[in-house]
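In response to reviewer comment 3 from the previous cycle, which asked for concrete evidence that the modeling workflow produces usable outputs, we include below a single protein chain processed end to end. The sequence was submitted unchanged, and the resulting structure tokens are shown without manual editing.
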Amino acid sequence: MTTRGLRWRRMNVGWASYAAEWPGPLGQDGAVVVVGRPHGLRGRCPVCGRRGRLWQAALALPQPFPGALDAIVGGCSRDHAVRALPADWSDVAAVFTRLTDALRADDEPTFWHEKLATRRARQAEQARLLSRLDPTARRLALELLRSDELLDVAQIEAVASAVLAEPPGQHIGGQPGPGAPS
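The workflow returned the following structure tokens.
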């Protein structure tokens, strides 16, 4: 992912100094990328090898997903900093899967490790579902998840399919909806 085409707007919230809507399905669903130069973050750019003060990037995901996914490494420019961020919902699913695996592989796992691992595994499943859906179904699925993030992926898929299969003006079950011609 590159910043070409991103429309950066200035902001000053914590360490972040610029924000932009993320492209593609994630952006259509409300994901926003923020970048900034946290104090003291210095090193070698993983993209070009340049040494110096690094930009850090984070991807703010739409609700009900956690607030943001940080890039593991920074970059010497905004463009290089965002390259480590997930590009689409299948990449988000992969991040949550890696988090789940890391939590379960901890040398001294606790009850809280497993609880968080279970939550991240469910979020990975939800992100995989979103990666398969068309934009209308994806927006409906996100609304369902916002109302109850514990809904099973199969239930979400079934409800989205049923709602989108109904003709306009009809409620599920074949009853006329409000404003439907009589």
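Strands lie at 9-13, 16-21, 32-36, 42-44, 51-53, 56-60, 68-70. We consider this sufficient to address the reviewer's concern, and the full set will be provided in the supplementary archive.
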